[in-house]
Every structure is written in C-alpha cells, then in structure tokens.
C-alpha cells in the first residue's frame, strides 16, 4: 500500500462493487483471493499558494456591516436614562444579554432590524434612519 496521502486503493471483486481500503492487511487479503487492485490518485489534493494568493488579491473587498457608533451610544444613553441594566433591557425585548452587549459595544455583525426595532420601542429612542438618538414619536403617528 502506498504511504502517499494523495492515493486511494480500490479493491474490485465485481465490476460494479468496488471497495476502498486503508490497511495493508486488507490489500494482502485481496491479493490472496485474486481480486483486482487499483491504486488511484485523489483529484485536487494540492494547494498552490501562489495561485490562491492571486485569487485572494483579485477578489472584492468584503466589509461586514456592524452597528454604527452613534447607534451604540444612543442605546447606551437611552438605557441609562431609563435606569435599566443590559440584562433588564434584554429581558424586556426578549433577547439575551450578550446581544444587548454586542449592540452597545458596536460589535454586533449585520445588525438585525427587528432587534433594533424592539430596542427602539423599549427605550423610546430612535435607532434607525435619520435623527438617531432622538425620542420616538407617539405610536402610530409619523
């Protein structure tokens, strides 16, 4: 059996039912029984660092959307104005405290608009669109 990581040994007793083996004892048993043994190279087992670097450099610049600093400050100020802890706010909007912490610290990746909406209603502060940090209007009024 080859000690090469890029090769596969296939034992065929019948044409339609090949078996892949990984041990030398299985290969020896197949040889004794007269089975056909084929060793094939695996496809795509190499890593070309130069080619991958080129692909990496040609690719687009992907930037992950995070919570804006003004939004995180507005959440923190609104929460403190209502004398709430992060845990209190999380309980009120039915989310985990870590979620509130991520939004407040600006670390939340791809901010969820539903969570921002819940926070807006709980804090009474606008967190989306223009005038971030201003008080919300009366419910139903625009």
UniProtKB/TrEMBL annotation:
Keyword Transcription regulation appears in the UniProt entry: yes
InterPro entries: Cro/C1-type_HTH, Lambda_DNA-bd_dom_sf, MBF1_N
Single annotated GO MF: DNA binding
Cellular component GO terms held in the UniProt record: nucleus
Domain HTH cro/C1-type, residue spans: 75-130
Record's keyword annotation contains Phosphoprotein: no
Keywords associated with the record: DNA-binding, Transcription, Transcription regulation
SMART domains documented for this protein: HTH_XRE (SM00530)
PROSITE patterns attached to this UniProt entry: HTH_CROC1
Pfam families documented for this protein: HTH_3, MBF1
Function according to Swiss-Prot or TrEMBL: Transcriptional coactivator that stimulates GCN4-dependent transcriptional activity by bridging the DNA-binding region of GCN4 and TBP (SPT15), thereby recruiting TBP to GCN4-bound promoters. Involved in induction of the ribosome quality control (RQC) pathway; a pathway that degrades nascent peptide chains during problematic translation. Required to prevent stalled ribosomes from frameshifting.
Family (UniProt): Belongs to the MBF1 family.
Protein name, per record: HTH cro/C1-type domain-containing protein
